[in-house]
Amino acid sequence: MRDPTTDVVSAIEVEERPPRLLDRLLATQALWIGLALLGLVVVFSTLDPDSFATTFNVRNLVSDTAILLLLATGQTYVIITAGIDLSVGGVLVFSAVVSVAVMEEMGSESTAALVVGALVALLAGLAWGILNGLLVARGRIPALIVTLGTLGMSLGAALLITGGVDKRAPPRLNLGLGLERWFGIPVIVWISATVTAVLGVVLAQTRFGRYTYAIGSNADGARRAGVPVERHLIKVYGLCGLLAGLAAYLYLAKFAITGVSAHGTTNLQAIAAAVIGGTSLFGGIGTILGTVIGVFIPTVLANGFQILGVRPFWQQVAVGAVLIAAVYIDQWRRRSRSS
Amino acid sequence: MVDAPLLEARGIVKSYGHVEALRGADFTVLPGEIVALIGDNGAGKSTLAKILSGVESPDTGTITMDGQPVRFDSAEHARAAGVETVYQDLALCADLTPAANFFLGREILRPGVFRWLGMLDHREMRIRTRQACDQLGIRVKSQNEPVSTLSGGQRQAVAVARAVTWAQRVLFMDEPTAALGVVQTQKVLDLILTVRDSGVAVMLISHNMQDVKAVSDRIEVLRLGRRVARFATPDVSMEDLVAAMTGARPEENHE
What is the CATH number of the domain that holds A307? Predict the structure, then answer.
């Protein structure tokens, strides 16, 4: 009799008001960090209007960020489950290397080779992600250790395959996908933005997203409520790996090399973007919108400093400070709300 | 009490390493009754509740429901059989809203193509949560804030409302009043009676003898991992209960 699934919505007076947009916005770190980003943009634009706020520069900014955005989006999912994925940089390099190897084997210039190369990159990333997920969920090994291990393994495997020398991507990939623009915006950015937008909706609006938050919030409670915790964690780490595979292919298209030694701190950049954007390292909290903003802050800082002639090393210092501030705010908010 | 047991556990053994939490425990729930499970700290009450609600599996022993043997390998199995539990730690996700917690694992999806995409029907879930809470006389400050912003009593109310709403056959409550003040405790006790009157059996684990005496129909006593006594609540004195719990009296297991 008290089963609400059989209850008919009986009265108009229970009409529910969805949470007011303004209230929700004010409560999210995404808003504050978004204002900070806006402030940076205004400051840099005012200081050097001829260089910063130009189509050319903005295109560069967005293009530089597109690949990192994919990694940060995957990272956001993982961190919301109260996990972490340190392996993304290694997985990216590995996926790029095997993708190039397969494309070379197939003759590089055929369309089939480029398509198969893309599939290989995605599958390689997915495989590492699922391995991470299996070890974390079924093996009960802390994510920090698992992904530190697979970071070394994937990077090591990539170096074994290449002998430590960067491989070049097929020119047709670099000159095609790498340079192609739609409506003035690089196709790489379109791909990254579309994938990120879809995953943002998935996180906020679907059962998949709901389970992601639930697990990070209280894995035991979620399990008792019937959430398939282990299976879901494997999917989330798999998604993060898959995105690293996609990032690898876009990286090949953009930079034309596998970048075997270029991704030592990629994982930290992705984590920093998510955390700056309000994703809590303790799990249960975070949004893709926040991560999008979080990705842009380091890029805008670097770009702005460069244009103003500030030595670029200051960017690292500034990003580090922003990161610490973001985590401090998160801690402070947790303390103030929990009983 | 000539009814056949609704849920019966026999000879349940459960060890954690070298610690024997349950050593052949028995337990019976009759249809439409409130049965209290009492015992000293470490008697195995919570372990027994976890086994009966599918969170833990027993090492040996049998569980029957309506006379048929059942295996609850996970909380999901138990829930499918109509068994709900209010856990001592509430098992709420603090970062989710009350409605999200209420429907966790049973999300309502939007109709049409959105269902296929797994899209949540937030509005419908909010409305039904509000309705269920209203029906139970539970006021939750806000349906839009995460549970972490609620007081201890409110969180308890959400957890209780969730279990009460979904329970079809049996409701386990592990220390449901532990975090509550006098008024709220009375509310939960009233709620337990309401649930019983709706035909759902209730198993109540509590330290509070007054509460147990006030609402239960029967009392079973667990001591050192075994059932040592069963009483009809009206016939038993506080002294009897304490004596059975502490072992101050020879065992009287009416098997």
Answer: 1.10.3470
* Structure tokens belonging to residue B100: 């999200």
Q: Could you give the CA distance from residue A48 to residue A43 in angstroms, rounded to a whole number?
A: 9
- How much is the pLDDT for B1? 46
pLDDT(A13) > 90: no
Distance (Å, whole) CA A112 – CA A172:
12
Is residue A61 in some structural domain? yes
* Cα torsion B142, B146, B149, B154: sign: positive
**pLDDT at residue A310 greater than cutoff 80:** yes
CB neighbour list of residue A171: distance below 8 Å, 6 or more residues apart: A108, A109, A256
CA–CA distance, A63 with A109 (Å, rounded to integer): 25
Residue of A199, A203, A210 to mutate, interface with B, max B Cβ within 10 Å: A210
A14-23, A34-43, A133-142, A199-208: which has the minimum mean pLDDT? A14-23
Task: Report chain A's mean pLDDT, rounded to a whole number.
Answer: 85
- Confidence class for position A7, pLDDT limits 50, 70, 90: very low
Phi, then psi, of B43 in degrees rounded to 5: -75, -20
Tell me whether B231 touches chain A (CB under 8 Å).
no
Q: Which domains does chain B have, with CATH numbers?
A: 7-90+152-246 (3.40.50.300)
The DSSP secondary-structure symbol of B59 reads S
B238-253 pLDDT, tens per residue? 888 888 888 876 555 5
Cα nearest neighbour of B142 on chain A: A19
Residue A208 located in a structural domain: yes
Residue of chain B nearest A228, judged by CA positions: B105
pLDDT at B18: 85
A10 interfaces chain B, CB cutoff of 8 Å: yes
Residues from chain B contacting residue A227 (CB–CB below 8 Å): 104-105
Rounded to whole angstroms, how far apart are CA atoms A5 and A100?
53
Task: Tell whether A89 is within 8 A of chain B (Cβ).
Answer: no
The gap from C-alpha A133 to its chain's centroid, in whole angstroms, comes to: 17
- What does the pLDDT average to over B215-232? 89
Where residue B236 falls (left for φ over 0; alpha for ψ -120 to 50; beta otherwise) is beta
Given a cut of 60, whether residue B185 has pLDDT beyond it is yes
d(CA A296, CA A193): 13
Total structural domains within chain A: 1
Torsion of CA B36, B37, B38, B39, to 10 degrees: 170
Give residue A2's pLDDT. 43
Q: Which of A2, A7, A214 sits opposite B104 (nearest CB)?
A: A214
Residue A16 has pLDDT above 70, yes or no: no
pTM: 0.86
Whether chain A has a CB inside 8 Å of the CB on B132: the answer is yes
Report the residue of B52, B73, B93, B158 to disrupt the A interface, i.e. the one with the largest count of A CBs within 10 Å: B93
Asked if the C-beta of B120 comes within 8 angstroms of chain A's C-beta atoms, the answer is: yes
Asked if B128's CB is within 8 angstroms of A207's CB, the reply is: no
